[in-house]
Write a structure and sequence with these properties.
By secondary structure, the chain is mostly helical. It has one domain (2-208): Glycolipid transfer protein, GLTP. Helix content is 66%, strand content 0%. The protein has helices spanning 2-7, 11-19, 30-46, 52-70, 80-89, 105-127, 135-144, 153-164, 169-176, 181-208. The chain starts with a helix and ends in a 7-residue tail after the last helix. 27% of the residues are buried. Bound molecules: ligand 1PX. The site of ligand 1PX has 21 residues, from α3, α4, α6, α7 and α8.
Length: 215
């Protein structure tokens, strides 16, 4: 039935939401960015409870951004660009050490932004992988090149342990629910340039404002 198809998880739809993030003049809509992350978390949850500590942190950060979006200054949070401008002009960001703004949109989004780089690297490896490639290896390589340098030892250790129980490539492709492997590869080929663009635009914005190391 239509209803049961609705509930079926499909990664294509999740990755499509990142397409909707980009405005005509290449700004990034926060609402769509958050929606994209919600879908990814749903996917992560479907992989099992071992990933609970990861999705819990992601949900936490998503919720902080949603609160900003729904807050009384929500109109300042329409795009990542407007958020950065608003929070900086109003001194709502802890720039050098943690202080009175531990939940700024800027520092919170930075964590998801780094995780988006992990996603980009992991999906690119999946796209170019062969039948006997190991998801755990692709995942940890992507992690080491993106998030790991920002995480303390204990988090890196826990992440490494979780990666070890990732399903193998065939089962992983199944859960993605996109179709046969050729279709997964094609879908990734279409989705990746957009994820990459959202990442690059955010990266440049943060670099311009010296926000890449926010505590
Ligand atoms: C087909 C592929 C789709 C896969 C979708 C998977 C979505 C993954 C979502 C990961 C979101 C991770 C957000 C992490 C943010 C973060 O870096 N937080 C740390 C710093 O925050 P703080 O507020 O303290 O400055 C925080 O310490 C994090 C703790 C949790 C552990 C984070 C490990 C991240 C591993 C990412 C790889 C996910 C592996 C999924 C396997 C498919």
């Amino acid at each position: 039935s239509v209803a049961s198809e609705d509930q079926k998880f499909c990664l294509r739809e999740v990755l499509d939401t990142f397409k909707l993030c980009l405005s005509e003049n290449k700004e990034v809509y926060l609402q769509q960015y958050v929606t994209g992350w919600r879908g990814l978390v749903k996917f992560l949850n479907s992989l099992g409870s071992v990933f609970g500590f990861i999705s819990k942190d992601a949900v936490n950060k998503i919720q902080i951004l949603v609160n900003h979006l729904n807050g009384e200054n929500g109109s300042q949070y329409v795009t990542i660009q407007s958020m950065v401008k608003y929070e900086l002009e109003n001194e709502l960001v802890d720039l050098t050490k943690r202080g009175s703004h531990p939940e700024s949109g800027c520092r919170t989004l930075l964590r998801l932004h780094r995780a988006l780089r992990w996603l980009e690297l992991f999906l690119e490896r999946l796209r170019t992988s062969t039948e006997d490639s190991k998801t755990s290896v692709m995942c940890s390589e992507a992690y080491n090149e993106s998030l790991a340098p920002h995480h303390p030892w204990v988090v890196r250790k826990a992440a490494g342990m979780a990666f070890c129980v990732l399903p193998g490539r065939p089962a992983f492709f199944e859960v993605m629910n996109v179709g046969p492997p050729e279709q997964v590869v094609a879908m990734l080929g279409e989705a990746l340039p957009l994820i990459s663009e959202v990442y690059q635009i955010t990266e440049e914005l943060y670099a311009q404002h010296n926000l890449l190391d926010l505590p």
